Structure formats: structure tokens, C-alpha cells
Amino acid sequence: MHVELDEVYDGLRRLQQIPGLLVEAIPLATCGRMEVYCLSPHPRRVIRVLKGLVSARTSIPHGELEAHTYLYRGEEAARHLFRVAAGLDSVVYGEAQILGQVREAMLHPSSAETGGGFLMRLFQSALTAGKRVRSETSIGRGAASVAGAALCLLEAQAGTFEGKTALVLGAGDTGALVARLLRKHGMSRILVANRTLGRAEELATEVDGEAFDLSGLPDLVSRADVLVGAVTGRDDLITPEMFASGAVSPGRRRYVIDLAHPRNFSPEIEDVDGVQLMDLARIFEQVEEAKLARQEQVPRAEIIVEAEVENFIQWARSRKSGPILRAVREQILALAHEEAERRARGKSPEEREALTRFARSLARTLLHAPTLAIRKADPSTPEGRWLIDAAPSLFGIEAPDDSLKGGVL
Fold first, then answer.
1. Where are the domains of the chain?
2. For 238-253, how does the pLDDT look when each residue is reduced to its tens digit (9 = 90+)?
3. 400 within 8 A of 36, measured Cβ to Cβ
4. Predicted structure pTM score
5. CATH class of the region 146-293
6. Is 151 helix (H, G, I), strand (E, B) or coil?
7. Is 152 noted as a catalytic residue in this protein?
8. I want to staple 140 with a disulfide (CB 3.0 to 4.6 A). Which of 88, 94, 130, 158 is the partner?
């Protein structure tokens, strides 16, 4: 199932044109998920409409769609987003890219149209949780991806990349990721070789490198200090003979990372002087070590997430109950003042002042317990919603305008 992000925004804009249906919405798209965070007074109706739109767009029957979707509401929706931002809902704990994707969702130009103060605060709080997890734990340390582990091994062996040339064989997903990492870590020159020259040129442009097809491999091998194999379906693409001319320079060392399956480099190249081969077996070993180390950090990360969820929920509760509390306080204090004025007619100034102080003190004392109850009421629960919704009638005030009744989807 594939849905373009622009189409999602278009659908959300159409829903927001229906009066009172959808107040705010921000989609979050990553390589493995498409989520929509919504604020609506009619959550069940919004859920039905959104599922209907997805089913119509993808031609997936409703029953099958149900098996591939999930739903969180209220506090659980906030907790889910915070865990996503913290890298706790990723295939690899502490995934580095996800925090940036959450930030991009919040800052997307269309989110300024479909979102609003509530969801912007939700996403900002999620970013805070994600940043805290990364700074206060080591869940993001160590390479837990094949490409990242390969780069760590390479840096440990080769040191600085300054003045070095890398040859990346293959411009697919793996080759592209490695090329980007090499550029990010300061590789001076990057050569990209691919079966299709056009794809090599696209990647070379992105990483400020040079593009080639696979026909001139012997010359390319001789020019490279670092070689990365990521061409699929080509066993032993590089042979020891290709290294002969480039390995004879005294003291020259070259580093080979074979990420392909079947392998791109013949195992015999490790017998060539000055060549060091790192294959998938060694890289996977490092990946597993990193994954175990990250997993040990999960309990601490969950504690941080829960603390930030609680901070957000407290803010959300105060946002909903705040107008009601202010109206209740103003109403009760006004009634107390009116009663004090009525009782003080014909009294001396000192007596009038004493009655006024007593009325205010009594009003504040009577307000204390219901104020605490309303402030602590959780609008995501039936009991909390009942208490907040009943307060205007109980205290004889006009209910504040609340288009956010219903909560987060």
C-alpha cells in the first residue's frame, strides 16, 4: 500500500471544510509507517471517514485494511508518538532518522495549514522526549544498521577520510546510504559505479562524486583507497588481479567492505598486500553487539518517555479545564462580593471591609476542593469528561466554547 503525502494533506484539508468534524491534523510519514494525528469533537466519525478514504485510494477492502491499521486515542496516542520519536517503536531501537522525520512532519508547510496549537504542542513535546532519550541514554550509540556498522569498522581501521578516495559499487538503497555516510564523514572523493549509468549519475550528483558504469572496474579499483560492494546478483565482481597495479605502492593500505549477497569481492583479495577485507559476517557481528547494547537502554528510555507524556497530559488537562476554572472562580468571587455588599449596607467602613474579606476567604475555601478536582480531571476518561462538562451547570456559568471536545486520535 502506498499513499503520497500530498494526497494525505489534500484529504485532510477536505475533511476540515466539513464544519465541526476535524479541528487539527498532522500526518507522519516514515519509511515504514503512515500515521495521522487528529483532534476532533467526533473521533469515531473521523476514523470511519479516514479509513474510507484510504480504502478508496488503495482499493484495499475495509476488512483487509482493518488488519493493517492501528488506532490510539487520548493519552495512548501521545505515548505512541513519544515512543516513535524516541526510537522505541522502530525495528532498531534508537533509530537516528526517526527524530528528524517527526520534526519534518511538524515543520512541513502543509502542517501549518492542517495543524494547530494542540498538535504542534504534541509534536514539540515528542521531540523533547526523543532528544532527552538520546542525550540521557546511549540507545542511539553504536551502529545497529549494516551500513552504519560498516562505516564504524572502516573508521576504526582507516582513521580519517581526508585525502582518500572511495569507490562505491552499486547505486541502490545500500550503496546510496553508504555513499551518503561517506560524504557526511568527510570522504574527499567518491566514485560511484553501477550497471545503469543514469542511476550512478543521480547518486554521484547527490554526494558530489563521479559516476561510472561497471566496464572500467580495473582502473577504478586502482584509484580507490576504500571500496564498498553493494551490487546485487554479481558474485566475485572484483578479483585479486584488479588490485595488483594499485597495491604495489609501498605503505599504501586499502580497505574493502563487501555488503553484497552474493559477495562482490573474491575472498582471495585479502591475500593481496595492503588490502583489508571486511565482509558481512564481521559486520553483522558488530550489528548484533550494538543492538544488544541499545536494548539494555530501553527501560531508562521508557521512564523518560513516561515523564514527558505526563508533562504533556498535564498541559492538555490545564488547557481544557483552564477556561472553566477561570469562569468558576470569577463567578463565585463575584457572588461573594455581591453578598458582602448586600450585608454591609448601613455598616461602618471597617465593618464593610471585614465582611468583604470574610466573603472572599469563604469563597476561596469553598473553591479549593472543586478546583483541584477539575484541574486533575482527565478529559480522555468518561469520568473526567463528565466532571469537566458538568462544571458549568453545577456552578451556574456559561460553558466556554470548546471545539476540542473528543480528544486526540
1. 5-139, 146-293
2. 888 888 755 456 678 8
3. no
4. 0.59
5. alpha beta
6. helix
7. no
8. 94
